[in-house]
Specification:
The protein has 286 residues and is of the alpha+beta class. The chain has 2 domains: 157 residues, Beta Polymerase, domain 2 (2-Layer Sandwich), CATH 3.30.460; 117 residues, Four Helix Bundle (Hemerythrin (Met), subunit A), CATH 1.20.120. Helix content is 50%, strand content 14%. The chain is built from 12 helices and 8 strands. The strands form 2 sheets. It has a 6-stranded mixed sheet with strand order 3-4-5-2-1-8, with helices on both faces. A two-stranded antiparallel ribbon has the order 6-7. A hairpin with a 2-residue loop joins strand 4 and strand 5. Helix 5 crosses helix 6, helix 7 runs antiparallel to helix 12 and helix 8 packs antiparallel against helix 12. The chain is globular, with a radius of gyration of 21 Å.
Length: 286
């Protein structure tokens, strides 16, 4: 990583400077927004600059990378990802002014469909390698609500933001019901309890991780806040008004218990996980 990254508050200036370049990634009309942690208010001097481009056709990855190289030089170290052909999503990432810039290219049609599905209460998790617990399609709603519009010629992004301004009740019911059931599955499960007795820390740590992530889905939905993705969750959870006592600290302690994987430690972890599940369950029913 280059030394001395610029301050987070110059992201708008960087996006404006790069706008003529990133427009060229799209083979036709596009809308552009600033997204990611900076748009969500959690950005800092180490944050990358997330540029969202919504279109229905983009240039192949090699061509996008060459556009960056010609404009910014080899030092930009441009990398493209995603499949060429019909656009679902992809990206071209590079360095500019000491800052990592990630250009996320997304099919406008796909985003529109995802919003429609979430408003109807449809929830899907895609298992992909680049996110810890899979990609939750409803995270798109958090991105849309938080993003700062840069260019939106036909008002598409403004329409999306208006649609997601209020948390859909059908989505809340589906997330709470589904992920609370997942979280309640494990604490008294026979295989979890026997794994504790065997000191099978690899297996039990996976159970804890899965259960905690299910609880995170539930608490965001209880608070009618869109799940924002997995990065910097601690800061974002602490902003939620309705939580069990010391929820974030307890989650951190569950995920990083420390010490030897003894039967006593693993059992204490299981009991604390069970207590946290029960408290979230009561909160969901209140």
């Amino acid at each position: 990583m280059p030394a001395n990254p610029t301050a987070a508050d110059d992201a708008d200036e960087i996006v404006g400077e790069l706008l003529p370049l990133v427009r060229r990634f799209c083979a036709g009309p596009c809308a552009v927004a600033l997204g990611g942690s900076i748009a969500k208010g959690t950005g800092d001097a180490l944050s990358d600059v997330d540029v969202y481009l919504f279109a229905d056709a983009v240039l192949p990855g090699d061509e996008r990378r060459e556009i960056v190289r010609e404009a910014l030089g080899d030092g930009a170290r441009a990398v493209s990802w995603g499949r060429d052909g019909e656009l679902a999503e992809g990206g071209t990432d590079f360095w500019h002014r000491g800052r990592k810039v990630e250009c996320w290219l997304r099919s406008a049609t796909h985003v529109e469909r995802a919003i429609d599905a979430c408003v109807r209460g449809e929830v899907r998790r895609d298992y992909v390698f680049w996110t810890v617990m899979g990609f939750f399609t409803h995270a798109v709603l958090a991105d849309v609500r938080a993003m700062r519009i840069v260019e939106d010629a036909d008002g598409m992004l403004a329409r999306w933001k208006a649609r997601v301004a209020e948390y859909p009740e059908a989505l809340r019911r589906e997330i709470v019901g589904r992920y609370l059931a997942e979280a309640k599955f494990w604490p008294e499960n026979f295989h979890y309890r026997t794994a504790v007795q065997r000191r099978d820390a690899i297996y039990t740590s996976g159970i804890v991780q899965q259960t905690v992530h299910a609880l995170v889905q539930v608490v965001f939905a209880i608070n009618r806040e869109y799940f924002p993705g997995e990065k910097r969750l601690g800061e974002l959870m602490e902003r939620l008004p309705a939580l069990p006592p010391a929820f974030t600290e307890r989650v951190r302690a569950l995920l990083h218990p420390g010490g030897e994987a003894s039967v006593e430690r693993l059992e204490a972890q299981r009991l604390e996980l069970a207590a946290l599940v029960a408290e979230v369950d009561r909160l969901a029913g209140s």
